[in-house]
Design a protein that fits this description.
Radius of gyration: 19 Å
Number of domains: 2
CATH architecture of the largest domain: 3-Layer(aba) Sandwich
CATH topology of the largest domain: Rossmann fold
Shape: elongated
Order of helices and strands: EHEHEHEHEHHHHHH
Helix content: 40-55%
């Protein structure tokens, strides 16, 4: 099964799969709910999934499906190159993580390998995860504050939204900037988006 919200990307994946006589596409989905419904209906051996879906995060889809089907196999094929995205997907149960742009042959090989029960973590993905292995993580509240900063809210507005004082918002942002090793809010948002802490 193939899950991606961009029709042209799905067409490309379909072409790659159907170009191999050993593979057969049995379902497509363009959002999380369609994906979950289609999985229950078709029970594919391997699911190729993007993390950026319009209604929910791809990691949530993997998690929900594997609650009912713990042996479900997933190949993440995404443009998300942040260590947090990678780690969350693999912890949720994805057996492979590929960055969009891989060659046809590699995708076919990875689908077959995952079907055979193997995992596939390319060197560039492993290096990204290892690079931040010992980096501090952000708390839930810090992520909430940072997401609202990314949405353009000022400290006072964030405080009102989260029912905390403006000084507390500033404290959280100081902690965020220290943990991400940046000097200002804009850079904090950029780094957080790139690593996969937040979405914009």
């Amino acid at each position: 099964m193939c899950i991606d919200d961009h029709p042209i990307v799905r067409e490309g994946i379909v072409s790659i799969i159907e170009g191999d006589p050993e593979l057969k596409l049995i379902a497509e989905a363009e959002n999380a709910q369609q994906a979950i419904d289609a999985f229950h209906r078709c029970k594919p051996d391997v699911t190729v999934i993007d993390l950026r879906l319009p209604d929910r995060d791809g990691v949530e889809v993997i998690t929900e499906i594997r609650e009912s089907y713990p042996h479900a196999r997933f190949v993440v094929l995404t443009s998300a190159e942040g260590d947090i995205d990678m780690r969350r997907a693999l912890e949720a149960g994805a057996q492979a993580y590929l960055i969009k742009g891989v060659v046809r042959k590699e995708l076919r090989q990875v689908i077959k390998a995952v079907h055979a029960g193997q995992r596939h973590i390319p060197a560039n993905v492993a290096e990204e995860i290892v690079a931040y292995m010992d980096a501090p993580t952000l708390t839930v509240r810090e992520l909430e504050v940072l997401q609202l900063v990314a949405e353009g809210l000022r400290n006072k507005e964030i405080g009102g939204r989260l029912s905390i004082s403006e000084d507390t918002v500033k404290m959280h942002m100081r902690n965020v900037m220290q943990k991400l090793a940046v000097n200002d809010r804009t850079h904090a948002v950029m780094v957080a988006v790139r690593r996969g802490f937040i979405r914009t």
